Amino acid sequence: MQPVKTKKKLSRADKKQIEAAIARANRTDKKGKSAQDSIPYERMWPDGICRVSDSHYTKTIQFQDINYQLSQNEDKTAIFEGWCDFLNYFDSSIHFQLSFLNLAASEETFANSISIPPQGDAFDSIREEYTTMLQNQLARGNNGLIKTKYLTFGIDADSIKAAKPRLERIETDILNNFKRLGVAARTLDGKERLSQLHAVFHMDEQLPFQFEWDWLAPSGLSTKDFIAPSSFEFRTGKQFRMGKKYGAVSFLQILAPELNDRLLADFLDMESSLIVSMHIQSVDQVKAIKTVKRKITDLDRSKIEEQKKAVRAGYDMDIIPSDLATYGSEAKKLLQDLQSRNERMFLVSFLVLNTADNPRQLGNNIFQAGSIAQKYNCQLTRLDFQQEEGLMSCLPLGLNQIEIQRGLTTSSTAIFVPFTTQELFQNGKEALYYGINALSNNLIMVDRKLLKNPNGLILGTPGSGKSFSAKREIANCFLLTNDDVIICDPEAEYAPLVERLHGQVIKISPTSTNYINPMDLNLDYSDDESPLSLKSDFILSLCELIVGGKDGLQPVQKTIIDRCVRLVYQTYLNDPRPENMPILEDLYNLLRSQEEKEAQYIATALEIYVTGSLNVFNHQSNVDINNRIVCYDIKELGKQLKKIGMLVVQDQVWNRVTINRAAHKSTRYYIDEMHLLLKEEQTAAYTVEIWKRFRKWGGIPTGITQNVKDLLSSREVENIFGATR
């Protein structure tokens, strides 16, 4: 029995959208050519397949950017060679188009992404100031443009039934090829392709695209009625008007003997709305070689004719026109490339669509684009009286109506590398500001919770701004999210920020009255049935700092400590009241009662931290750590206690994370001078354990260190880097 489909109730905005489309369709003079008639496709299917002519079917893939322009030369070479292999995948039966759309976004789009809404508390003035700073940073870049990249591919087929399986096979291959390049890519469905066309046709209005497939039958409209602009005007032949926008299409004449990989990037760096479209058709390899051989034969024939003329005229037969000699050597080089250097021949149409609000501004934009082409010894030529064909060829439909093509080999085509720099601008409600892209000057906005792994590392030389970056992120997080923030502060530099945010600074030192019990245990400490497993790991790490030498704790010592840990918590586990929580002295006494000499050795090593001058950690906890932002100031602990202090703070953070997990709340933990925890094997292993497990418990750790050499000397650092992506 088929399930009954419920009809979607139309909103008022949806009804207005349909009414406007019907009115636009009714206004059209059926005897004349309508705006819809200019749009060159016949049918769009929901799965994203589009029939652009009687027998030509296309699909579109959107792909993201990767870092190319700022990469080292060897990395650039690897990307370039990978792109050459990518292009060589396409045979002569597949026409494909690369489309680069730089379209203006409404101011509200970016304003909503960077503004921090007021909360009605004591920090709204800071929120307003922070938002102003972000707006100033936004003005430095060209974030007013939304930049997208597409690859549209098409094949000829007798029917949609015949086209679909082949298109899907090609689609899978292309996605795999992108994956090999490290490029994220996805296929657009029919609604997304229509939305893409709507954005091009409605640059002046920037209205949201409203469309559902089940609107078509009741309204009697076609998909074109939902995307068509109010009008097209191609009267002058030099430019066109689309709605209220003016535009002009030009083609790139490639005159330079050598091309530069910055040409395409410079076009895409323009601060005005534009579309760059490259239609690429692979030539059958056998035909290409035959064509080149035929050309060489023609050139040789011309050379012989010139030599005969020279003999008849009585001068040296080796003196022939220089162009003839140049063409001959270039043709032979091309033949060698095709036959022995894994090169193919492609026919390329390179189109540039400039747009503006008025003809004067359009002229300036075209002049700027022409200057870029001129810089690379190329020429941008207007498509006179072919503006309509040019505009439709710039649409990401995979249909080329411009018959101006230039033959290029694989490496010459690949020089238009479609990658510049990877942008990171997430529109999430909790996206934080991380700085400016060095190449594009665009904002970097990221919600780490949306990433595959939220863990982070802040690395840099002294004075490079590591602590400032951490403080900025802490402030941004506090103002925008509801997350708890905990800071391990070995240099006492975070207190002013924490106090301004009404947080709590816990100063831990031999003379302080603030105490933290390293033996504190939360019964939800671990996913395991017994919370002692991970706690035992922590106490082993603590004892290693106290007892272990160069080689760390010995197996027998570890066994004794683990046994005593399980015994010392028995009273608390049987009756979990705060006064039953053990302290370090209880562990010390239990070790003293053991028979093994190793136990006495460990107890003796612990003595200074229990009854000696370093007994700051031998007390029940007396600090309230329920504040949203807590800073542990361990500057005055001294060299002997600092590492222990950092480890104890880390354990307190784990306790806080387990409490917050039950409340579905995230906990951010910032560890300054993190390399100190990675010098001993056991403490490094415990830190790695936290790095691996934090994500599942709603924790977001961030390590901060300037001593990269010490960081890399730890064997565990690979695991930390692996869990920080």
From TrEMBL:
InterPro entries: P-loop_NTPase (IPR027417), P-loop_TraG (IPR043964), T4SS_component (IPR051162). Residues 447-717 form the TraG P-loop domain. Pfam families: P-loop_TraG. It comes from the Bacteria. Coiled coil: none annotated. NCBIfam families: conju_CD1110 (NF045971). This is Conjugal transfer protein TraE. It comes from Enterocloster clostridioformis.
